[in-house]
Amino acid sequence: MLTGKVEKNQFLADDIFEMEIKYSNLSAKPGQFINVVCDGKLLPRPISVCQSKKESFVLVYKVVGEGTKWLSKRIKGSEIRFSPPLGRGFNLDIKNKKIAILGGGMGIAPILSVAQALDKADVFLGYNNDEFLHDKFPNKIYKSFASEGETVIDRFVNSKVGKSYDYVIACGPEGMLKALQQVCKEKNIPGQISIEQHMACGVGACLVCNCQTKHGYKLVCSDGPVFPIEEVVFND
């Protein structure tokens, strides 16, 4: 395990926090995650790396249990233990494509570094109520709010620009990704999606985080979390 120190840990919205950890050259690729030790009595929590900087990196997480509650109480200077970057991230070697990047809920955090690398892409962000991280995207942004009856997929499909994309990158809840997969199938649009899944070990040993694909079952932690959108098989 690696060790860093909390630089900041601030509330964003809806039990969502942003933590910056001082640690040099983590070198996480967009879409990768780390296992964070939350109190020695609990299993490490997998959290996507939102941004990887030269002297620090940023995590965005939601308080949903004892582990993330403990994490939310850390103050500046607190030590945090974590794994090196894990999983397969996004392939950003995408040329001559008009790209749409979609993030829903906590799936907004993993796509920030993707959007910053592909700053000519358009970004669609789906929120429940309060927005967060939107001011960090350098891209053209289209926002939707479930509380107002519109999903990020609605915004993507119904927008005037929605018909012009030929590649998508997305992260979000399963229902969102399943709906996007259907849209992409109808329009013959390829892309990549990052799957959200419960994990235990994070390195492919415990076999908990399996995901059905057209090529058999894969492990989200080691084969993913990023997969080609056309390969994932979602249950009805």
From TrEMBL:
Q: Which GO terms describe its molecular function?
A: 2 iron, 2 sulfur cluster binding; flavin adenine dinucleotide binding; metal ion binding; oxidoreductase activity
Task: Please list the residue ranges annotated as the FAD-binding FR-type domain.
Answer: 1-92
Q: Does Electron transport show up as a keyword for this record?
A: yes
Q: Specify which residues bind [2Fe-2S] cluster according to the UniProt entry for this protein.
A: 201, 206, 209, 221
Choose any GO biological process term that the UniProt entry carries and state it. Answer: pyrimidine nucleotide biosynthetic process
Q: Where does FAD bind?
A: 45-48, 67-68
Q: Spell out the Gene3D superfamilies in the cross-references.
A: Dihydroorotate dehydrogenase, electron transfer subunit, Nucleotide-binding domain of ferredoxin-NADP reductase (FNR) module, Translation factors
How is this protein named in the record? Dihydroorotate dehydrogenase electron transfer subunit
What species does this protein belong to?
Answer: Proteinivorax tanatarense
